[in-house]
Amino acid sequence: MNTITTAQQKVRNISQLGLSIYDDIKIGDIHLWLTSDELSLLLNQRLVGASLAGLPIKTRSKTAKEMVCRALGYVLPTSFIKCQPRFSGQMFDTYVQKSNNLQVWNEELEVERRYVIIRIDENDVITKVRVISGSDLAVLDTTGTLTQKFQARLTPSHKVLELISPYDTDNIRNLLASSPIVLSQCNPTSQPQIGQLLPIAECFIRLQQLVGCTFPDAGIIQERNRGATLHAMVCNALGYSDYRDNGQFPDIKHQLLEVKLQTSQTIDLGLFCPNSEAILDIEQIGTQQVRHCDVRYALFYGHITNGVVHITNLYLTTGESFFTRFEQFGGKVLNKKIQITLPHSFFN
User: Fold this and answer.
1) Measured between alpha carbons, how far apart are the two ends of the chain, in Å?
2) pLDDT tens-place string over residues 50-80
3) 9 phi and psi, to 5 degrees?
4) b (16+ CB within 10 A) / e for 90-112
5) Diameter of the chain by CA atoms?
6) What is the sign of the dihedral through the CA atoms of 281, 285, 289 and 295?
7) Least confident residue range of 64-68, 81-85, 290-294, 303-307
8) What is the mean pLDDT of the chain?
9) Contacts by 169-176 with C-beta closer than 8 Å and gap 24+?
């Protein structure tokens, strides 16, 4: 089934069970948990074009929440409890935005929470809904006060190839392919499936061929494009017929694989600690919830000479074992009063 079909079925399930927005749902529940992509599709389909004209700001906010409840099949509460997040069952908050100045007051920005940002025009008509994770929202902070990202240090050794975790985590071991599989007909950004997850040792075998490879450097201010080139090479090495990137974590969702190109010893890890046992915002695989520490990390180390990137080393590990090889430093600091200027392209 496609994304909108599965989303609509989950809405019917929520409605039939008579759930409230406060009823707990396991992250990734294949019958009730709405992924961020599903939330986005549903809310854009059902809210865009609706008018909030003539309403005071507090009433406007409440009315928007009621619209979201109806769109997702929830029973309307008699009043919205002041809990964090307001839609605690699906782990998200809503914000109605006429300006690009997003304000998150009196609470920390939660990297694992979703933020549903509803755009209204000068006539107070809803024009777009954007669903974004706290980790992605934090990236938009340009003041430097919002967060200090997790970082680690990569100290190269004499080994060119290092399989730091020879086995996957116990949590996903029973989901792995029992024999080598062909991935040419699979989408690298699609939902992982039982029997289609390559064991970490098999990933290591397939990715070894990239050590010694070179590719043109996109330039010092084009780090994202440089990473995209490597990402495409990784997809090809694993056996995919095409390269796709939706900008979400992990890079190759179908294999629970995050890819990093390191031309310095400082590893930027973003707002998620690799060994975190927090649940990843994807559907369960079978009945198994996937945690951040189950994700596999492929680190390609190299150098840039005369405009060419040279890959010299490969390190592969589970998040669970990440810090057995790489030294962690820094930490995470989140402010309670946060103002973020959304870029003009945010709702495009």
Assistant:
1) 26
2) 999 989 888 999 999 999 999 999 999 988 9
3) -65, -40
4) bbbbbebbeeeebebeeeebbbb
5) 68
6) negative
7) 81-85
8) 89
9) 169/291, 169/293, 169/294, 169/318, 169/320, 171/288, 171/290, 171/291, 171/294, 172/197, 172/256, 172/285, 172/288, 172/290, 172/294, 174/288, 175/285, 175/286, 175/288
